[in-house]
Specification:
514 residues, disordered C terminus, Bifunctional diguanylate cyclase/phosphodiesterase
């Protein structure tokens, strides 16, 4: 920042300040010497020595003053650069970018010309940085910055607002062609591999866009909304972009409410378990029940699991909630027929906790449930987070005698080698295949293939989401004999006498859920 750019400290002001400080201090020093020495040098007294010291201090003060005022602008320049520019890239830092957005918002409010904020994020940059090392990560960021400069109009403002996140402030008149074509071209060019000193690195991007003044003029709100659009783009897949709309704001507000309310809901006891029967088609006998969590909020009513499970996983609340589900399901299983098991869904986060097997052992011991009456449903995603650890956990569970079902089979990883490495007892055909089995030949072929695979592996098979008689008939014809779905019973709470430790005869026979 040049000194002349500060109206309170012009070159003339600095010169006058330094001159006056120096002259004043020099005169003070001479006065001190005169007072102490008088007309002669004989008989040096204590007063004279004090005066000499005062003179020297005054001279030192004048030098210090000159040094201070001469360096004020250099210090201001250093502070300005430290707070306004990113050290690694030289781009505007987040605080400076917020200021530029505020300026742009004022300008667009005055002129009416749209101004776009483009939020660009390198997907999974932390994982990339950890994998290639921080030195190579810094090199990647510098290369990314250089290419970004080349891809956007010359007068666009660019800032680095996160570790792998960048913001571009762009007036409408600088966009050549349509915004859509410019963003598509930007993503394509920015996702080309980067030549680093040691290797070639590929990246994927997510891009969120907001328009001022349509989407607001508060810079903090604008950044929040651009990030919401970015998250929406990321949820849509690799290399996507999204423009902010008001629905994203409502979703974000609801998510924030859920996140803040989860702990209170757990403490209040809002959660309950409903059970859905699993039926053996040839005999018509119920062989098990899947425990499904429900959240009955005192003010907002029933909140579906899909609205809070993922948030619970991200916030860590899934561990106490998951432990409660496991303990309650095992306790409720005592009221089911002796030849029925209870199936409990296990979150990937819960599955990979430090002592998950210990939790299962403790739960079985405290509730008295037999291993054969507990089944754990684990997704492919959970097992593939850490294959070695997952294999060890599954092996321990198998040694205890607990069956593990691979939930939503066919919708996760295409690499089926884990079927050989992992110990599990059942495959669960996902409802997405079952729902189309009577209308889509390919879905029917997939179901038949999964059934054949289960037989070859020597494991059981079950299909979920069965809603029509036709679907049930086709599943049985394909060789799948155990099913679950609305056709045979909706999830509902268990009903039994409060004073009874065991179920009534009717509940023992069919575990009355209605």
């Amino acid at each position: 920042m040049p000194a002349a750019s500060n109206p309170k400290r012009t070159p003339v002001f600095r010169l006058l300040t330094i001159a006056s400080s120096g002259i004043g201090s020099f005169v003070l020093g001479l006065w001190g010497l005169k007072h102490g020495l008088g007309d002669g040098f004989a008989g040096i007294s204590a007063d004279m020595m004090v005066s000499v010291m005062a003179a020297l201090c005054a001279l030192a003060a004048s030098v210090a003053a000159m040094s201070f005022f001469a360096g004020v602008d250099e210090s201001a320049n250093f502070v300005f650069n430290e707070t306004h520019f990113d050290k690694l890239t030289g781009l505007l830092a987040r605080p400076a970018m917020v200021g530029k957005i505020a300026e742009a918002a004022c300008a667009t409010s005055r002129t009416g010309e749209p101004m776009f904020l483009i939020d660009i994020d390198i997907d999974r940059f932390k994982q990339i940085n950890d994998a290639i090392g921080y030195t190579q990560g810094d090199e990647l960021i510098r290369a990314f910055t250089k290419r970004l400069h080349d891809c956007v109009p010359a007068r666009a403002l660019i800032g680095r607002i996160g570790t792998g996140e960048f913001a571009v402030l762009l007036p409408d008149h600088q966009i050549q062609g349509t915004l859509e074509s410019m963003i598509e071209r930007l993503i394509d060019e920015m996702m080309e591999p980067y030549e680093l000193s040691t290797h070639q690195q590929s990246v994927s991007l997510s891009v969120g866009i907001v328009a001022m003044p349509k989407d607001g003029i508060d810079p903090v709100l604008i950044l929040r909304r651009s990030n919401l659009a970015l998250q929406n783009a990321r949820a849509s897949g690799v290399g996507n972009w999204s423009v902010f709309n008001s629905e994203m704001g409502r979703v974000a507000d609801h998510r924030q409410w859920v996140e803040s309310e989860l702990h209170n809901a757990f403490e209040r006891g809002d959660f309950d378990l409903h059970y859905q029967p699993q039926l053996d088609l040839p005999t018509g006998r119920i062989v098990g029940y899947e425990a499904l969590i429900r959240w009955q909020h005192p003010e907002r009513g029933m909140i579906p699991p899909m609205e809070f499970i993922q948030i619970a996983e991200e916030t860590g609340m899934i561990n106490p909630i998951g432990e409660w589900v496991l303990r309650k399901a095992c306790s409720d299983a005592r009221h089911l027929p002796d030849d029925c098991f209870v199936a409990v869904n296990i979150s990937p986060v819960q599955f990979m906790t430090k002592d998950f097997v210990g939790l299962v052992r403790d739960t079985m011991r405290s509730t008295g449930i037999k291993p054969s009456r507990l089944e754990l449903e684990v997704t492919e995603t959970a097992m593939m987070q850490d294959r070695d650890r997952a294999a060890a956990i599954l092996k321990e569970l198998a040694e205890i005698g607990i069956s593990v079902a691979v939930d939503d089979f066919g919708t996760g990883y295409s690499n089926l080698s884990y079927l050989i490495d992992f110990s599990f007892g059942k495959l669960k055909i996902d409802r997405s295949f079952v729902s189309r089995i009577d209308t889509d030949a390919s879905s029917g072929a997939v179901v038949s293939t999964i059934v054949g695979l289960s037989r070859a592996l020597g494991v059981s098979i079950i299909a979920e989401g069965v809603e029509t008689e036709n679907q049930a008939t086709l599943l049985r014809a394909a060789g799948c004999e155990v099913v679950q779905g609305y056709l045979f019973g909706r999830p509902a709470p268990l009903k039994f006498s409060a004073g009874d430790r065991h179920a009534t005869d009717e509940v023992r026979r069919v575990a009355n859920l209605h």
